[in-house]
Amino acid sequence: MNEVILLKNGEIVLKGLNRRTFEDMLVKTMRRRLSPTGGWRFTTAQSTIVAEPLDDGIDLDEAVSICKKIFGFAGLSRALSLPKDFDAILSETGRYLSDELSYARTFKVAAKRADKSFPLASPEICTRLGERLLCDFPHLTVDVHNPDVTVNVEIRDNSAFVHGTQIKGAGGMPTGSSGKAAVLISGGIDSPVAAWMMAKRGLQLTAVHFASPPYTSERAEMKVHSLLEKISQYSGPIRLFVVPFTEIQEQIKDNCREELFTIIMRRFMMKISGSIAEKSDCGALITGESVGQVASQTLYALSCTDAAVSMPVFRPLIGMDKDEVVAVARRIGTFDISVLPYEDCCTVFTPRHPRTRPKLKYVEAAESALQSDKLINDAVAGAREYLIDGKGK
Ligand code: ATP
Ligand code: MG
Predict the structure, then answer these.
(1) Euclidean distance between the first and the last CA atom of the chain, given in angstroms as a whole number
(2) What is the CATH number of the domain that holds 309?
(3) What is the pLDDT of residue 223?
(4) Does residue 222 line the site of ligand 1, with CB under 6 A?
(5) Is the domain of 189 the same as that of 117?
(6) What is the predicted pLDDT for the residue at 358?
(7) What angle do CA 364, 365, 370 make, to 5 degrees?
(8) Which residue is closest in CA terms to ligand 1's atom 25?
(9) Is 348's C-beta closer than 6 angstroms to any atom of ligand 1?
(10) Is 109's pLDDT higher than 50?
(11) What is the pTM of this model?
(12) What does the pLDDT look like over 116-168, one tens digit per residue?
């Protein structure tokens, strides 16, 4: 039996002349992610990539679960590859889909004939294969509107394919197709979701995490590694910079007014991340902020934070409620890690009454008590670098 995985391109089908470039990116990503499972051949035609296993014993279930996390595909399915011979299609389809059809009550056949030289037109394929399946599975009835199983027949240039109901793909754009961005990642619920959302739009991720030992522990940092492992299963490898932040926090605490502590700290985070982003060839920053969530995320505070850097800051959660963010976190597998109770540097020295309406000129005046450039340079120079690669597992 010659089984393959068919992957239907998502949004890139809307691209014009450079569609090929996007497809090449998808194939490159698939080759890398599927390589731990064995050898594969990839062919691209008519908005579909056919992934064909070359080694016996490749675990197709595992391969499908890897492919479900590759951005750029609208849907995918395991499929039987057959010669373009209708008798073969008639005799093999029921056998191939017997599990799905045995458990179903209703079905329909959907046929697509990309190769117009195939002697039967699509409606005829549907009728004749439908009749045959009704004979072989007498408990079934046809439901063209809401069937339990859709039996798909695709007649393509080099082969015919038969498959059951298609699985939803990860959607989005191929990794790297939109450039690179640096995400400020905490151990919380929000920033991992923000990272995943922007990776979905085709951005390759670099991550920056601020650690303040001894106020924050090694376990808090390991939590960030685990979160990025999860995200990298979708986004591909992520470079992580862990920035020493203790000195900066202590300097702010000792030299600035308590109510401005948080906003000044956040501006340092942005400046340091901006510098790391530039060095790493990233064109934007990503944060998990959402309007009104906490004192540092009021409109006033956000505009002070924005003013700290010149590159664009992407905040994909800006208009989302917490429960909407939590739903995504659960879906992508970061939630259970995020709720582990380890401290974040943002919870160190938090003021009792943070300013919710900070004014930039007063914030900048307060910052002039600090040797900002030196503090920033030292922090960037002291950052530890890691490569996180979930390897599509
Ligand atoms: P999260 O759940 O992502 O921690 P939050 O709602 O707790 O977000 P804040 O603690 O105010 O919000 O942080 C706002 C954003 O600042 C985070 O979403 C993240 O992008 C960034 N951030 C916070 N703490 C850190 C950190 N230790 N290292 C890097 N970035 C951080
Ligand atoms: Mg946080």
Answers:
(1) 26
(2) 3.40.50.620
(3) 96
(4) no
(5) no
(6) 86
(7) 85
(8) 186
(9) no
(10) yes
(11) 0.93
(12) 999 999 999 999 999 999 999 999 999 999 999 999 999 998 899 999 989 99
What would the pLDDT profile of 170-215 be if each residue is shown by its tens digit? 999 999 999 999 999 999 999 999 999 999 999 999 999 999 999 9
Q: Could you tell me the pLDDT band of residue 391, with boundaries at 50, 70 and 90?
A: low
206 in a domain, yes or no? yes
Residue 15 CA: distances (Å) to CA of 67, 129, 204: 22, 35, 20
Contacts of 326 (CB under 8 A, 6+ apart): 189, 335
Residue nearest to atom 18 of ligand 1 (CA): 288
Query: What pairs with residue 135 in β-bridges?
Result: none
Is 294's C-beta closer than 6 angstroms to any atom of ligand 1? Answer: yes
For the chain, give the percent of residues with pLDDT over 70: 99
Which domain does 113 fall in, by range? 3-168
Quote the mean pLDDT of the chain.
94
Give the C-alpha separation, 14 to 9, whole Å.
Answer: 10
Residues near 230 by beta carbon (within 8 Å), at least 6 away in sequence: 192, 332, 333, 334, 337, 390
Nearest Cα residue to atom 31 of ligand 1: 186
Report the nearest atom of ligand 1 relative to the CA of 262. 11
**What tokens appear for 154 in the block?**
């695709």
Question: Does any domain span residue 205?
Answer: yes
Q: Which of 168, 188, 217 is the last residue of a domain?
A: 168
Tell me the C-alpha to C-alpha distance, in Å, between residue 360 and each of 59, 182, 263, 267, 291. 57, 24, 10, 11, 18
What's the CA-to-centroid distance between 95 and ligand 2, angstroms?
53
- pLDDT at 393 > cutoff 50: no
293 CA closest ligand 1 atom index: 6
Check if the beta carbon of residue 203 is closer than 8 Å to that of residue 174: no
Instruction: Compute the distance between CA of residue 227 and CA of residue 335 in angstroms, rounded to an integer.
Output: 9
Ligand 1 neighbourhood includes 186 CB (under 6 angstroms): yes
